[in-house]
Amino acid sequence: MEVRLQQDETWEVLLARANDGDGAAFARFLHAVTPTLRAVIRRRGDGLPPDEHEDILQEVLLAIHLKRQTWRRDAPVRPWLYAVARYKVVDAFRRRGASVTLPIEDFAEVLPEENAAAPLSGRDAEVMLKMIDARSARLIRAVALDGKTAEEAGETVGMTAGAARVALHRAMRRLSDLAERMMK
Predict the structure, then answer these.
(1) Is the pTM of this model over 0.85?
(2) Where are the domains of the chain?
C-alpha cells in the first residue's frame, strides 16, 4: 500500500510538472503509467481481441496528452487515469458493436416457439377489441388473430369481400386511434 501511495505521489508530481510545461516530466509520467494502463485495458477490455489492446493504449495516451489540463492538482491521478482508460475501452466496444455471439443450440430448450405470442398481447388485444363494436371485433379477430383472409372473415359475418375489407380498414383505424389515446 505504501509503495502505491509513493507511486501515485510521484505520478502526481510528474503530471503537475508536465502541466507546468516540463516536457521531460511528461515523458517520464507517460512511461511510468503505461504498464498500469496496459493492465487496466487488458482487464476492462477482456472481450476485445488482444491486438486491439495496444491500439486502445495509444488512444488513452493521446487522450491523456490532449486532456491532461483537466486533471485537478488536488485530486489523485489514478482515478483520473482509470476514467480515461475506461472511456476508451467503452469506445472500442461501441466501435465493434459489442455483440456477443453464442451458439443457439445451447439455448434451444429455453427459447420460445417461433410463432408464440407474447403473454400479454392476447389479453391486451381482447381488451381493445371490447372497446369497438362486435362485428368489427369479429372481423379483426378473424383476420389478425385467426389468420383468415378478408373474404373469409366477411363470409363469417355475412358481408361481401369488398365490404369486409372496408369494414376491416375502418375497424383497424378505430383500434389505432384507441391505442394512441391510451398511450397519451
Answers:
(1) no
(2) 2-96, 121-183
